[in-house]
Model the fold of this input.
Amino acid sequence: DAGVIQSPRHEVTEMGQEVTLRCKPISGHNSLFWYRQTMMRGLELLIYFNNNVPIDDSGMPEDRFSAKMPNASFSTLKIQPSEPRDSAVYFCASSFNGVLYGYTFGSGTRLTVV
Amino acid sequence: KQEVTQIPAALSVPEGENLVLNCSFTDSAIYNLQWFRQDPGKGLTSLLLIQSSQREQTSGRLNASLDKSSGRSTLYIAASQPGDSATYLCAVHPPEGYNKLIFGAGTRLAVHP
Done:
């Protein structure tokens, strides 16, 4: 299995532009998570899906952030409009019963908003 | 509110030393605890997963222990190597917020030859 695949690996954009991050979870995993990592705040859960349905989006910082999971093999995290304070590394993770088997993380997307 | 603390924040040791990394959590009600490794500019790699009913897990030179009642876990690395240099993160799985992992800030380890 190729693991959790994220794209792009790096994204540099200007303030005010729309940014879309993509994630392909491991086949057979039924839960998908979006995390954000910064030096100041560490790893924070933004949103998670179970069976393609958003279960908890309480970590989404503002209405500028939205996430979708149209099918079991694809999810997007969109920021519109982007701001410099959104600069961070965004990780996608997936699991099949995280309590028993844990979580697998992608390599992340490093976002820089200038 | 569950909080996870990792001590030390950074560690630099010569190759060959046995190491202990510490993780503490404020609420002992957890489903499991997971140790991850993160290389610079990379994602998180799962090292060990300890269920709440278990005391320890071992993988190669790594051994993780869990003491739920005292809210502590340790990651023991035997005979450290330069390739072990990375940031080590622990995360707990609380019962509320079923799928929410709560992460510590990590211990940045440097093993020099």
Notes: Chain B has no helices and eleven strands. The two ends of chain B are 41 Å apart (CA to CA). The longest strand of chain B covers residues 44-51.
